[in-house]
Amino acid sequence: MNEEEHLKTLSDIKGLMERSSRFLSLSGLSGIFIGFYALAGSIAAWWFVNNYAIEITSYYTLATNPDTEEYKSFLSFFMGDALIVLALSLITGYILTQRFARKQGLKMWDTSAKRMVINLFIPLVTGGIYCLILLQNQHIELIASSLLMFYGLSLLNASKYTFNDIRYLGILEILLGLIAAMFPGYGIICWAIGFGILHIIYGISMYYKYER
Amino acid sequence: MKEYVNGLNREFESRVRLGIMSVLMVNDKAEFKTLKELLDVTDGNLASHLSALEKAGYIKVKKQYIDRKPNTSYSTSAAGKKAFSGHLNLLEKFLKSNK
Q: Quick check: B22 and A16 in contact, CB under 8 A?
């Protein structure tokens, strides 16, 4: 064995260790799309609140009294808005990740993908259920910040099983969530930053780093 | 320089065996199917290398039934981890001494 062979062996070993333990087909391009959906969703929410002629930072005061018409229309609009953004994001993420996996000649739904998805969804679903409980108990002002934090924790957890980059995205989302919890009026703005702008920045950087 | 080469573990001489050990070092366990896809080898080839590693005491085999289908998964033994780490260290040392 000569030096070149040893080098190749070592780099093969490193590659196999990476490939077998991490999901490396997560599409950065989908992050860019998801960011734009979230920005559009935030703008729609801002437009809705604006219609009631109140400041964007007092949006949650629309939902303080569950018996009013305002409460019902606020709730259905915000839930619908969030669900549309979520659905579009999941579909886009799935399609583009599949495309990226095919381009790399890999199967999308392998052990590493399953492991990443499970570890992403355990904290995320917990957060989703927790927010429904908050809604039930009319703590509307805490929902935006809680989801940001749970999303951040989900990314942090999933980062062990995919590109390490999303670890830092997770930390940023957690910080934004804490800020949103301190200033509940800034929930929509923090969502626009956390789910919109940060996704776009991360999407672009990951796209250039891995996908091109 | 020569002694490093001689010190290299003969059990790890094949690309497939190195591959199997690499995957098992960073995963708790791996199924036959997963290994096959990752290493891109035939069933027979993989099976013979796996049994060689098992005979050497470097990997542990667990056979079970999942949904009534046979399922075989593999993991490293303590001896296998030690041997493989030693092998990697030797490779690195050899590269450094050649610089």
A: yes
- β-strands B59-66, B69-76 pairing: antiparallel
**Given a cut of 60, is residue A174 above it in pLDDT?**
yes
A150 backbone φψ class: left, alpha, beta (φ>0; ψ -120 to 50): alpha
Provide residues of B within 8 Å CB-CB of chain A. Answer: 5, 8, 15, 18-19, 22-23, 25-27, 30-31, 34, 37-39, 88, 91-92, 94-95, 98
Residue of chain B minimizing CA distance to A20: B23
State how far the Cα of A157 lies from the Cα of A161, in Å rounded to an integer. 8
- Which of B18, B26, B27 lies closest to A9 in CB terms? B18
Residues present in chain A in total: 212
The token duo for A48 is: 């809705």
Query: With contacts defined as CB-CB under 8 Å, which chain B residues touch A105?
Result: none
Strand, coil or helix: A60? helix
A57 Cβ partners below 8 Å, 6+ apart? A183, A185, A186, A189
Q: Which amino acid is at A195?
A: F
Query: E strand or H helix at B30, and its extent?
Result: strand B30-31
CB–CB of B30 and A111 under 8 A?
A: yes
Q: Look up the ipTM and state it.
A: 0.77
pLDDT at B7: 60
pLDDT at B2 over 70: no
Q: Out of A6, A20, A107, whose CB is closest to B94?
A: A6
Question: Is the CB of A12 less than 8 angstroms away from the CB of B27?
Answer: no
SS3 B61: strand
CA atoms of A141 and A62, how far apart (whole Å): 10
